């Protein structure tokens, strides 16, 4: 009899183990990293400690050839791409501050793509909600699969990335205000403004209060032995301070120090909520930073390498927190760069400047010669859009398509202009062009249909808008698509290195496949290891 019982017990134990291995994790942690570069990550890999990024790279499935489909992506659009699997045409998010036509036809920039007068802010004057999202996110699909029982939290330095990470159904979404430096939120979210977040801003604990005494200096000298920094004149003993104003807060959020603040905040969520404590899968989205600092005068600086080291330490801290909260064996961790990077063009690199005001004036004269007196051009923007005066065009009973074509034809002859496309052409071809057509996808993603300018254009690589926001004494930072990395670590991981190119739009489908839930949109599933 005992000979029969022992094999049966062993079989039952084996079945239970297989169920745990095949089961859905208790916790999903999505780490999106602004400006993460595959080449730098590979370069510093041997110098990193064992418990942070190196651990994920060795234990996870690593896609090291991940690409953004947009030619000039921005962080907000890239975050939306990652979480929804589609571009602005599908998800409604093209940029942080879109240009909007008022009812009188005037064009102005919104403070945020998520502006919503219906919801006031906690500790901020911003009024924001995720209602602008027109496609579900990974978090939304998990919430739907669990019938609303999954807990969802999202944190980021900036409001837009935090809101995207939380989707429509987050319990709590928190970000750092641009003006007062506090952790803030919106009344849209059911958790409101919990005491543990309030305490982050309390007294001398607050970021704003600490700015006046905060000094950013190197944390790990070993990284500065890389060939990038062995040339003459590189200051490896940098020191940066931060002013107590909006500019100081912005620079702090674009420094290596921001990742530690995010790590501390997510630690409080793990400690003060029920996230990851039961069998129903919960989700935390965290937007980290791996870009150069605001005043960098070259592409690879000691500050950038320090940022990678501090990113590594933040990831190590988060892994420890996960171990305490739900256990790494019950957690899916996904770390992915957003596929965009700021490339520095020095003053010597820039061969020409595009004058927005001059273009506006000359084009207005040209259109007047065709159709008569009037202010025919509302705005020429720094992201390559021209807004016509549609009220005037309508009152003159003119064909909008014809006026767009005349404006586009005139613009094509300007020095430094690389391409010109009318809004009419984009609308006509929106459902016809392949998703692999990067030029078309970039034009289409400039704005959603109702907010896009009448003419979309871009400059040659070494040309700059004279009013460009990122034009400094050192040169111009342009936002370009870069190759980045995607790491998935799942319970009982089987590590693998996958070199097959992966479109960022397909990251969400990969994560949802592992979770056994439907993807937000119809992304393609790349090569996967065993899960």
From TrEMBL:
Pfam families given in the database record: Phosphodiest
Cross-referenced InterPro entries: Alkaline_phosphatase_core_sf, Alkaline_phosphatase_prok, Phosphodiest/P_Trfase
Molecular function, one GO term: alkaline phosphatase activity
Gene3D superfamilies associated with the record: 3.30.1360.150, Alkaline Phosphatase, subunit A
UniProt name for this protein: Type I phosphodiesterase / nucleotide pyrophosphatase
